[in-house]
Amino acid sequence: MNDIDFILQYTRSLLAIDSPTGFTKKAAEYVIDVYRQMGYSPVLTEKGGIFIDLGGRDEDNAILLTGHLDTLGAMVHTLKSDGRLKLTPLGGLTPNNIEGENCRIYTRTGKVYDGTFQLINASIHVNDDYNGKNRTFDTMEVVIDEDVHDKAGLEALGIMTGDIVCFDPRTRITESGYIKSRFLDDKLSVGILMGYARHLQEEDIIPDRRIYQHISVFEEVGHGNSHLPASVSEVLSVDMGCVGEGLNCTERQVSICAKDSHGPYHYDTVTALIEAARSRSLDFAVDVYPHYGSDADAALDAGYDIRHGLIGAGVYASHGYERSHIEGIRNTFELLKAYLG
């Protein structure tokens, strides 16, 4: 299996495991198993993330590569009197992006129920304000696929406030090379990081510089990367590259972020990433993201004295039904190889 096929296969498997912020245990166990099979010794952090030492000669100038496993999702806010569920979002989930989407409700007792997230009074032949109604978490609800019509019925199923609600990823890879799925942010990057770790093992490479990886699990709520080994002087976040109006990046490119909503990334790191991309004739774009924060930002917010950067495969329709391309994966993977030497 070549590197890109490996990344696609394991990304697809990871996308099939529900893991919204705060509910990442099963996905983390899967990732840990993959790293162990490759010969590494991953460590589960207290917060539920995964820390991996990829080795390297220079331990005094280490770099940490970070991607996040947690996705958007929701939590049960209220058991309604008509047997429906009101939700509260986990992360930046927007209700208009999940209207009509199938979901699963995970109870604390271990039972899982199917449902659909719908507008209240969702039949257009009945609701004369269907098109005009603003989609919010107050005007939308989960309709459970069980014969239940009141709050007592929900309680009898074992459903309660605080239960986790996960949405179908609907992953598809087209013959033309496009990858479409919810939660490419950031499971696609986790797949790329796993692919890079495998590359080192398969090619028996000992990097000149010590390389660590941290697969975080609270990025979507802003505190994913808050612990670094003392020897780490640089953090490179591998996350989705933004695609949209006013930006240069496409789904087929690797994006190098010069600035996001927190401020500029380290000038020397961004310059070195650009030079590395040019040295391999990679298809890349440099962009400024207007509404974005990364785990590299979180490390700075935590007070660490580090250089920081952000790269990622271009992803369209972020936080919705997202789309990237195999060439975007390839360019991101090759940039990691070029930058890390």
Give me the secondary-structure topology.
Layout: H1 3-15, H2 25-37, E1 43-44, E2 50-55, E3 58-68, E4 73-79, E5 85-90, E6 102-106, E7 112-119, E8 140-144, H3 151-156, E9 164-167, E10 172-173, E11 178-181, H4 184-202, E12 209-216, E13 232-238, E14 241-243, E15 254-260, E16 263-264, H5 267-279, E17 284-288, H6 295-301, E18 307-316, E19 322-325, H7 326-340
Parallel strand pairs: 3-12, 3-13, 13-18, 14-18, 15-17
Antiparallel strand pairs: 1-2, 2-12, 4-5, 4-9, 6-7, 6-9, 7-8, 10-11, 11-19, 15-16, 15-18
SSE sequence, one letter per element: HHEEEEEEEEHEEEHEEEEEHEHEEH
Terminal residue distance: 23 Å
Radius of gyration: 21 Å
Query: Which structural class best describes the helix and strand composition?
Result: alpha+beta
**Percentage of residues in strands:** 25-35%
How would a textbook summarize the main sheet? 10 strands, mixed
Low-pLDDT residue intervals, each spanning 5 or more residues: none
Determine the fraction of residues in helical runs and give it as a percent range: 25-40%
Number of strands: 19
Q: What's the shape?
A: globular
Average of the residue pLDDT scores? 96
Q: Report the total helices.
A: 7
Would you write up a description of this structure?
The protein is α+β, with helices and mostly antiparallel strands and 341 residues long. The protein is 25% helix and 31% strand. The protein has seven helices and 19 strands. Strands 1, 2, 3, 12, 13, 14, 15, 16, 17 and 18 form a ten-stranded mixed β-sheet that branches. The longest helix is centred in the middle third of the chain and has 19 residues. It is globular, with a radius of gyration of 21 Å.
